[in-house]
Amino acid sequence: MGTKELCNVVPIQERGRGVCVIGLLDVFTPASSLRSFHDFYLVMPFMQTDLQKIMGMEFSEDKIQYLVYQMLKGLKYIHSAGVIHRDLKPGNLAVNEDCELKILDFGLARHADAEMTGYVVTRWYRAPEVILS
């Protein structure tokens, strides 16, 4: 992730705490000078797993509804902030042991009014209108 992508990630994650969007606890670099700066690290809350890894498990209808509710709540929040995720898939929906869901991986996210490239989302999770266009 480059500096440009970091600018997409930080504002939505910083404001998104508590609204089904993974929070950002800290950003740091091991570099001791600007000249040696190449990498940075994002520190986020620990989540035990993601939806991709638990999709084969059996869940009660109440838990499924709760997971869907949290995903929609998070999407409503990021869309109301004018941000489009562009890579929403089960692997980018983290879940903890209390069945709390958080949207993560905003590396491809863009503001709705920004110019966007066409094919960025993971192939199997593309919208039909993107596939057919």
TrEMBL record:
PROSITE patterns with a match to the protein in the record: PROTEIN_KINASE_DOM (PS50011)
Please verify whether the record's keywords include Methyltransferase: no
InterPro entries, A to Z:
Kinase-like_dom_sf, MAPK, Prot_kinase_dom
Indicate whether Nucleotide-binding appears among the record's keywords.
Answer: yes
Superkingdom in the source lineage:
Eukaryota
Checking Pfam families in the record gives: Pkinase (PF00069)
Q: Which residues form the Protein kinase domain?
A: 1-133
Keywords on this record? ATP-binding, Kinase, Nucleotide-binding, Phosphoprotein, Transferase
Report the Gene3D superfamilies cross-referenced here. Answer: Phosphorylase Kinase, domain 1, Transferase(Phosphotransferase) domain 1
| GO molecular function annotation | ATP binding; protein kinase activity
Protein name in UniProt = Mitogen-activated protein kinase 13
